[in-house]
């Protein structure tokens, strides 16, 4: 894991504080409104262009793990998010929606880094990435409408437009770019140039989007600073409950060490960049929802770093990279 990956949460926090300062002491904050969505769109294109569907074949080699991960991500987690929001943020509808958007979107990028750090199965983890991306694309509007209740207060058409803009559009652009570059220059050139370029700009673009959003909404953030602290209990509860549940189920199923690590990481890590894009596009007049989504990775990334060491697979004779030899067909 590179030093820049280790410091992601620090970079996001610095970007948020810098944007807040600019927005409070200068008139430039209003310009942030015009930067947030473009920065997030380009960032998502950079994330999606690195996706490789060739790993999907690994899904069939670990059917039990895949099935459990889908149940945890798309049945258990939404219900847990709804319960945590209702129980701990009942009087804060915007924070509830922000929490819901964050927790119902499984990660499609940085969980791979933490899975590798913990010696999980890289093939299965990568194979689940496009599966989770498609499912959250289809199910996110359903979760917001069904579980958000009156707190959501968003037109279905508006929500679908936001999902189309912030998920479907960058996905189509990314796969078009990937296809064109492969046909024109070959896979090696694509990996060495397009993918490397895309990997390098993701974090700067995320920081730019966070900076612009906090500069734009600085007065709202300043007025609601204490309310942000209310997000800590439900977020901490989630990042304690999910690893415990995933690890417990993995032991009951007698999954191999790399599979256990993979199940824990793929069900714990969340997709705050995508959730942030949806929040900005679908709820432009409710900035507290988007601000709540920036708090998520500030808590999540350090926890994932610690978790990767706690659940690390210790058997060095059977590393994750050995692939299908370490997978039992369940």
UniProtKB/TrEMBL annotation:
Q: InterPro entries of this UniProt entry?
A: Arsenical-R_Acr3 (IPR004706), BilAc:Na_symport/Acr3 (IPR002657), Na+/solute_symporter_sf (IPR038770)
The answer, when asked if Transmembrane helix is one of the entry's keywords, is yes
Q: Name one GO cellular component term.
A: plasma membrane
Q: Which UniProt keywords apply?
A: Cell membrane, Membrane, Transmembrane, Transmembrane helix, Transport
Q: Does the keyword Chaperone apply?
A: no
> A Pfam family this protein belongs to?
SBF
Domain of life the protein comes from: Bacteria
Q: Give the membrane topology, semicolon-separated if more than one.
A: Multi-pass membrane protein
Instruction: Name one molecular function that GO assigns to this entry.
Output: antiporter activity
**Subcellular localization:** Cell membrane
Q: Indicate the family of this protein.
A: Belongs to the arsenical resistance-3 (ACR3) (TC 2.A.59) family.
Instruction: Name the chain's protein.
Output: ACR3 family arsenite efflux pump ArsB
- Give the organism, scientific name: Nesterenkonia sandarakina
